[in-house]
Amino acid sequence: MIKVAVCGAYGKMGKEVCAAVEADSSMSLAAKIDLCGDAYRTIEEAKQSCKFDVLVDFTQPASIYENAKYCLRNGINVVIGTTGLKDDEIAFLEKLSKENHIGCLIAPNFSTGAVLMMMFSKLAAKYFDNAEIIELHHNQKKDAPSGTAIKTALMMSEAKETFKKGNCPEVETVKGSRGGTSYSDIQIHSVRMPGYIASQEVIFGSSGQIFKIRHDSMDRTCYMPGVLMAIRHVADQKDFVYGLENIMD
């Protein structure tokens, strides 16, 4: 039985994770951590009161890095669903994970469909010289662009150095209208709007054709199979993983 603690337990994603863990016969919900309700207020407080094997974190970009460092320094395997970590922070968490032999899985997206979209985009990137990403989320998401968009661009960038082949010199008459420039010059456009949960479209272009890959999350339950998969992995393997695609069969 894997004992699981959920940080951000009373948030929208946290509630879904708690329900998914409680419904899984191989796991038990050992602790809820949050700043409201009947939860422990900090990871340290929870650790002093009960035992758990894995902590799942769906909190805020401002707190995730410190939370993850605490876990990896105190023998707690961690699954990170909060986005907003910088490249150097991810590199340091990888270092801590390997030094302490504690599992750490960071996933910009836990939806298997979204992960497949990212994998298909990486494959398509080999055949197109131009590409841009549009990501659309609810208007309570604090970080932009999304972790999924950043990870997608990173995966695509392995195919070539730039995705702006043949573009003319550009002048923005409205600052930011071309979005942000990511890996290999891939433009990322972020939309924040009530009604969305999470959507992403990757647009590829070449002379005479446009190719689009899109994924839409309609309900947060779509993330739960990936979360449970990640919990099992870190509890068993105790390694560092960035991206759910690395553990999908």
Mean pLDDT over the residues? 96
CATH superfamily caption of the largest domain: NAD(P)-binding Rossmann-like Domain
Low-pLDDT runs of 5+ residues are: none
Distance between the termini: 23 Å
- Using the CA coordinates, give the radius of gyration: 19 Å
Short description:
This protein is α/β, with parallel strands linked by helices and 249 residues long. It has helices at residues 12-23, 43-49, 61-73, 87-100, 112-124, 147-157, 224-237, and strands at residues 2-7, 27-33, 54-57, 77-80, 104-106, 130-137, 180-181, 187-192, 198-206, 209-217, 240-242. The chain is built from 7 helices and 11 strands.
Could you explain how this protein is built, in words?
- This protein has 249 residues and is an alpha/beta fold.
- 34% of the residues lie in helices and 24% in strands.
- It folds into 2 domains: 2-106 and 220-246, 3-Layer(aba) Sandwich (Rossmann fold), CATH 3.40.50; 112-217, Dihydrodipicolinate Reductase, domain 2.
- The longest helix has 14 residues, at 87-100.
- The model has no long low-confidence stretch (mean pLDDT 96).
- The strands form 2 sheets. A 6-stranded parallel sheet has the order 2-1-3-4-5-11, with helices on both faces.
- The chain is elongated and about 60 Å long.
- The protein has helices at residues 12-23, 43-49, 61-73, 87-100, 112-124, 147-157, 224-237, and strands spanning 2-7, 27-33, 54-57, 77-80, 104-106, 130-137, 180-181, 187-192, 198-206, 209-217, 240-242.
- The chain contains 7 helices and 11 strands.
- The relative contact order is 0.17.
